[in-house]
Amino acid sequence: MATIKDIAKLAGVSISTASRALNDNPRISEATRTKVKQIAAELGYSPNYNAQTLTRGEANMVGLVFPVTDQSALANPFHIDLMRGAGVALEQRHYTMMVAIAETEERLLETVKSMVTQSKVHNFLLLYTKEKDPVTDYLRDAGMNFVVIGHPEKQGDRFVDNDNIQAGFLATQKLLDDHHCQHVAFVTSPHHWTFEVDRQLGCRQCLNERGLGGTEWVVEEDNAPQFFAQHPEIDGLVCADDILFLQIYRQLEALERQDQLAIICFNNSRLLGRLLPAIDRVDLRPRQLGIAAVELLFNRQADHQFISFAL
After folding, report:
1. pTM for the structure as a whole
2. CB–CB of 241/272 below 8 Å?
3. I need a labelling partner for 292 at 20 to 30 A (CA). Which of 79, 107, 164, 283 fits?
4. Does domain 61-162+287-306 have CATH number 1.10.357.10?
């Protein structure tokens, strides 16, 4: 059975260089990586990933950190599609996923700390961005390798994202041009996640360019009657994501407003598309986001990547 030593000898490089080449280390030239991989393939070399884990002192795992979510909250299909994309990319690198989910910031932080200290996970994907996030602060201070999905809290954090400001602008523009709306409300959650803030900013920019005012609807339990009592003129909704639309749709039905409004929302979840009527959607391509996040995680020379969206 061929060993890494055999490959290094035939390639005329050191054992450490051969190992780095097989693991696509960007510090090794493309020519050397190609040569080493070709020799490994010819010899039928199969790396021992468990041995590599022991040698490096870290697991062949990537931690996927979900945003803090109440136990009763619906699972977001956007995150599921992100996981699928990341899973495909990780499998190609012979890595597996370890998931961190919790109902409070304190518990989430403890889970991530345990992953680092006990499970030797040193690479992380954060499926959210948030101001003053203790998990991000911990990973940064501990020198862990991590990438966030979304616009980062601090300059220097590596990230993968859509251009959510532009997406919010174009989504609003579609309501105005295709549905001739004059009174648009942006629908957001009480969390005001970074992606919601950016999409709302784009919405406001579009409305300002047209000389139109805008309204914000912060969705809380059964507050649609109060909102529409205060804003009966609303004829269009830009909904921050599919889950929010699912939350408000039954309320709109009860008010018999669902057919009186032009609505556009984000994520283009196929699951929700089957549950809810046809509306305009912005496809954020979450699987591509997941794949790109893994590629960036293992490419230390790059600091960000934007993934295009589609209306």
Report:
1. 0.78
2. no
3. 107
4. no
